[in-house]
């Protein structure tokens, strides 16, 4: 089977935008579990000659109260269960938030390789904003822009190093 890459992060950091850039129009089969809706979250891609599956975990919606926290936990659990490599995505415009720290703590304990991607680096000036993300403890942050596509090749290079 293809190795699995999961994109994890709080809502609105740009997971789906980057996911769509990586898969192009190559979507895969979607499977539902009770209480959870998975909306177009599985895709496939290939980089440096290495095929892989990729999950946009933000497509998960949990029924009921306390949605964001449950959703964050569900994303992290799904990623830890299914992924060989996890892309932890944050937002350079927003900086580090409490939700980022919470996701980071859950991922940290997984023992899986975690790559830290900082999205919305739309211009060179915003590259200065990525250094604070070292504080999350996942090594070198990889600056990307889903809007412009910059940095996505570097992110894919880092992903395929782990496949
Ligand atoms: P998700 O909730 O993590 O899946 O985030 P989305 O991919 O839905 O994006 C959330 C919002 O951020 C949308 O309004 C996107 O257009 C915007 N967005 C995504 N990538 C970028 C980026 O690189 N730069 C900027 N400025 N906005 C972005
Ligand atoms: Mg999304």
Helix content: 25-40%
- The strands making up the biggest β-sheet line up spatially as 3-4-1-6-7-8
Order of helices and strands: EHEEEEHEHEEH
Portion in beta strands: 15-25%
Structural Rg:
15 Å
* Cα distance spanning the termini: 12 Å
- Low-confidence segments: none
Give the domain tally.
Answer: 1
- Helical region count? 4
Mean pLDDT equals 87
Name the CATH homologous superfamily.
P-loop containing nucleotide triphosphate hydrolases
Count the E strands: 8
Gist?
With 163 residues, the chain is α/β, with parallel strands linked by helices. The protein has helices at 15-23, 67-82, 98-108, 152-161; strands at residues 4-8, 36-38, 42-47, 50-56, 60-62, 85-91, 114-119, 142-143.
List the helices and strands and how they pair.
Elements: E1 4-8, H1 15-23, E2 36-38, E3 42-47, E4 50-56, E5 60-62, H2 67-82, E6 85-91, H3 98-108, E7 114-119, E8 142-143, H4 152-161
Parallel strand pairs: 1-4, 1-6, 6-7, 7-8
Antiparallel strand pairs: 2-5, 3-4
Helix pairs in contact: 2-3
Magnesium ion binds at residues 15-16, 58.
Protein described:
Associates with the 50S ribosomal subunit. This is GTPase Der. GTPase that plays an essential role in the late steps of ribosome biogenesis. Belongs to the TRAFAC class TrmE-Era-EngA-EngB-Septin-like GTPase superfamily. EngA (Der) GTPase family. The chain has 163 residues and is α/β, with parallel strands linked by helices. It has one domain: Rossmann fold (3-Layer(aba) Sandwich). 28% of the residues lie in helices and 24% in strands. The strands form 2 sheets. It has a 6-stranded mixed beta sheet with strand order 3-4-1-6-7-8, sandwiched between helices. Strands 2-5 form a two-stranded antiparallel sheet. It is globular. The two termini are 12 Å apart. The model has no long low-confidence stretch (mean pLDDT 87). The structure holds guanosine-5'-diphosphate (GDP) and magnesium ion (MG). Residues 15-16, 58 line the site of magnesium ion. Magnesium ion binds at residues 15-16, 58.
């Amino acid at each position: 089977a293809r190795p699995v890459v999961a994109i994890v992060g709080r809502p609105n950091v740009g997971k789906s935008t980057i996911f769509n850039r990586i898969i192009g129009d190559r979507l895969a089969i979607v499977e539902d579990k009770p209480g959870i809706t998975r909306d177009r979250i599985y895709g496939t891609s290939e980089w440096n000659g290495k095929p892989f599956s990729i999950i946009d975990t933000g497509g998960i919606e949990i029924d009921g109260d306390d949605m964001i926290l449950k959703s964050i936990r569900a994303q992290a659990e799904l990623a830890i269960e299914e992924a060989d490599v996890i892309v932890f995505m944050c937002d350079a415009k927003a900086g580090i938030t409490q939700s980022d720290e919470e996701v980071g703590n859950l991922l940290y304990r997984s023992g899986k390789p975690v790559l830290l991607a900082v999205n919305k680096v739309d211009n060179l000036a915003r590259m200065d904003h990525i250094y604070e993300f070292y504080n999350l403890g996942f090594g070198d942050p990889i600056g990307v822009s889903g809007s412009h596509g910059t940095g996505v090749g570097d992110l894919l290079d880092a992903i395929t190093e782990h496949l």
